[in-house]
Design a protein that fits this description.
- The chain has 324 residues and is of the alpha/beta class.
- It folds into 2 domains: 131 residues, ATPase, nucleotide binding domain (Nucleotidyltransferase, domain 5, 2-Layer Sandwich), CATH 3.30.420.40; 180 residues, ATPase, nucleotide binding domain (Nucleotidyltransferase, domain 5, 2-Layer Sandwich).
- It contains 12 helices and 13 strands.
- The strands form 3 sheets. The protein has a 5-stranded mixed sheet with strand order 3-2-1-4-8, with helices on both faces. Strands 11-10-9-12-13 form a 5-stranded mixed sheet. Strands 5-6-7 form a 3-stranded antiparallel sheet.
- The longest helix is centred in the last third of the chain and has 25 residues.
- The protein is globular, with a radius of gyration of 19 Å.
Length: 324
């Protein structure tokens, strides 16, 4: 058996797990919060602690961990192991994360984009298994994507292919976390949905989410108390404001999917991430609208499904990516 440590560094959490890369089995996981106010130094220490805890609780000896793979919610220089820029991870810019983790855990470290890693997990053991061509899109704190062609990930000229969250859906639209305007991520991510819910509350709308909205940081709604589970519960309770904002976000996500279908003509789109996993209505609304609005020939050929590995897609993929 070959064991590796997979780590998923996202906008709200760090998830680490020891993975049997031959079977995809997750032996053990450890989780830490990752909020913007933590700062880069604290966030890195949380990541290292999560990794150490996962190894310790797995029963695998540290020396038997072959390597470490880390998926990061941002743009990375894979060759150098550097986080170039991560809009949803405050302070994370030009950070040589691979070097730091290698020094602390004494194992070889590889760095990947987080959705690139999640796509690898789905390709090896999830909804992409047995398929050679597909697109993976994860919706959470932000929105990211990855493209598989002939069974291999397509990196693009600078290893940043698949950034669907930063495609433009409104040329004069909202400010995105990356600093540009009108990007899909500013309309359809959980961060965007929470921001619009907070705006509705401030305008005097009522919502069951008002009970936790006071804990939300308006400057970092993606890391706020209004998580995907809370949104799902509010929707199930018939909360009008939440329903409206989810429907609007689903329309924008559908627009992004339509662009992918019309431009790239994939046979399969895999949707994942915390919001997709927690709110099935959001997935259904976006998928059905995309199928309705895409060009007829392309929409008839595409299947839109949920990711199969759930929260573990990223850690499994980060561990198995060297094999792909």
């Amino acid at each position: 058996m070959v064991y590796r440590l997979g780590i998923d560094l996202g906008g709200t959490k760090v998830l680490a797990g020891v993975i049997d890369v031959e079977t995809g089995r997750v032996l053990c996981t450890a989780k830490k919060r990752s909020r913007a106010e933590h700062g880069s130094a604290d966030l890195i220490q949380r990541l290292i602690r999560a990794g150490k805890e996962a190894i310790a609780e797995s029963g695998v000896k540290p020396r038997d961990i072959e390597a470490i793979g880390i998926g990061v919610a941002g743009q990375i220089d894979r060759a150098k192991g550097v986080i170039i820029r991560a809009p949803n991870l405050a302070g994370m810019a030009n950070v040589n994360l691979a070097q730091i983790v290698r020094k602390e855990l004494d194992r070889p470290v590889s760095l990947y984009n987080d959705v690139e890693a999640a796509a690898a997990g789905e390709a090896a053991f999830g909804s992409g298994k047995g398929h050679r061509d597909f697109v993976v899109i994860f919706v959470g704190t932000g929105i990211g994507g990855s493209i598989y062609r002939n069974g291999k990930p397509v990196p693009g000229a600078t290893s940043t292919a698949g950034e669907i969250g930063h495609t433009v859906v409104d040329v004069d639209g909202r400010l995105c976390g990356c600093g540009q305007t009108g990007h899909l991520e500013a309309y359809a991510s959980r961060t965007a949905i929470v921001r619009t819910i907070l705006g509705g509350l401030q305008a005097g709308r009522s919502s069951v989410l008002a009970a936790v909205a006071g804990e939300a940081n308006p400057n970092d709604p993606g890391g706020s108390a209004i998580r995907s589970g809370a949104i799902a519960n509010a929707l199930a309770a018939g909360d009008e404001l939440t329903g409206e904002m989810l429907e609007s976000a689903a329309r924008y996500l559908a627009a992004g999917l339509v662009s992918v279908i019309n431009f790239y003509n994939p046979p399969l789109i895999i949707l994942g991430g915390g919001l997709i996993e927690a709110v099935d209505d959001f997935f259904q609304m976006a998928a059905e609208r995309a199928r309705h609005e895409a060009l007829a020939v392309g929409r008839e050929a595409v299947t839109i499904v949920k990711a199969a590995l759930g929260d573990n897609s990223g850690i499994v993929g980060a561990a198995v990516l060297p094999n792909l």
